[in-house]
Amino acid sequence: MNVRRFLLWLLLFMALFPAFAEQTGVSTPIPVAATTPTIITSIRPLGLLAKAVVGQYAKVDILMETSFSAHHYSLTVSDRQNILSADIVLWVGDALETVLKKPLHQRQKTTIQAMKLSGITWPDRQEHHHGPDEYHSDHDPHIWLNPLNNIVVIDALLKQLSLDFPQYADMYQHNANTLKQGLVNLDKRLQHTMLPLQERSFIVAHPAYSHFVERYNLQQLAYITLTPERMVGARHLYRLRQQSRVRCVFQDYGIQSPSVKKLAKDLSVPLLRLDPLGFKSATLIQLIEQLGIDFHHCLAETR
To answer: Signal peptide: which range, if any (predicted)?
Structure first.
C-alpha cells in the first residue's frame, strides 16, 4: 500500500511540476545558438585592427599569428575549416598571403581584401631589385604601415559588421571612431618626429616599408632581398657594399640572415631590427609607433 501511495504522489507531482515551475519563475533554460560574430584575419596587424573595432562583441582569430613571414605560410586542415566557417575574413591580398587565394574562393560569406579597397594610398616611388629575379613594384602590400590606410580598412570592416550584426553597430562605431582618431593623432606625431631625419639614409632587409618611408619622406637607399626567404645574389651584395651614406641596416624581427648581418659589418654600421608585423606590440597604434621609434633610433644617432 505504501508503495502504491508513493507512486500516486510521484505521478501527481510530475503532472503538476510544469505549472509549479511557471509560477515560481524557475525553469531549465533552453539553449540558444550563439550570435557572436567570428572574424578571421590573415596576419597580426589586421587582427589588431579588427580586435580594436569589435572589442568584446566579436571573436577575432589570426591565422598567421606566430608566423614571421606571410609569404610561405602552410595552412592546416583546421585553418581551412575556420576560413570557410568564419562570418568575415579580412586579408591583405594575394600579393602577400598567396596561400589564401584558393580557399577564399571557396567561401560563401563575406571576404574583405584590403589591397582592393578604394582609398588606399600607394607609394609613388618604385622599388627596384636587379639580379636573378628582376623586380619592379609600386604595390607594396604592407599597407598598414601608413597609419591613414588603416582608416580605409576600418571603414570597410565597420560597414560589413554593421550590416551583418546591427545589434552591435553602435559599439562597433564607437570603437572605430576611437581607433581612427588615434591613428590620425599618431600620424601627426610621426610627421613631427620624422621631419629632422629625412636626409639620413638606411638599407632594409626586404621591400616592406615603402608605405611608411614615403608617408614620412625617409631616405631608403636599397633593400637586400625580395622576400626574407630568398638568397641574396653576390653581385647585388657587392653593389650594396659600395653605399657610403648608410646610417644603419635593418633586418626583420624574428628573421636571421647572415647576409644582412655581414653587410652591416662590412659597412661598419649598426644592425637594427624592425617589426612590421607587430610581434612586440599589443595594438595597431603601438605597432606603427614602435616602427617610428626604431627608425628614430637609427637615424637620430650622431655619427
So the answer is: 1-21
Burial of 147 (0-12, 13-18, 19+ CB in 10 A): buried
Q: Any long-range contacts for 55-64 (C-beta under 8 Å, 24+ apart)?
A: 55/171, 55/175, 57/165, 57/168, 57/171, 57/172, 58/161, 58/165, 58/168, 61/86, 63/100, 64/97
Domain 38-119+141-187 and domain 196-299, same fold? Reply is yes
pTM, rounded to two decimals? 0.83
**What top-level class would CATH report for the domain 196-299?**
alpha beta
Spelled out in words, what is the top-level CATH class assigned to the domain 38-119+141-187? alpha beta
d(CA 38, CA 60): 6
Sketch the domain layout of the chain as residue ranges.
38-119+141-187, 196-299
Ramachandran bin of 103, using left for φ above 0, alpha for ψ from -120 to 50, beta for the remaining angles: alpha
Q: What is the pLDDT of residue 4?
A: 59
What type of residue sits at position 148? Answer: L
The pLDDT tens digits of the residues spanning 121-142 come to 999 865 544 333 333 345 899 9
Residue 229, φ and ψ in degrees, nearest 5 = -85, -15
Query: Do 150 and 215 contact (CB within 8 A), yes or no?
Result: no
CA angle 8, 13, 15 (to 5 degrees): 95
The predicted structure's pLDDT at residue 56: 96
CA pair distance 71, 65, nearest whole angstrom: 13
CA dihedral 134, 138, 142, 143 (to 10 degrees): -170
Nearby residues of 58 by Cβ (< 8 Å), 6 or more positions away: 36, 37, 38, 39, 50, 161, 165, 168
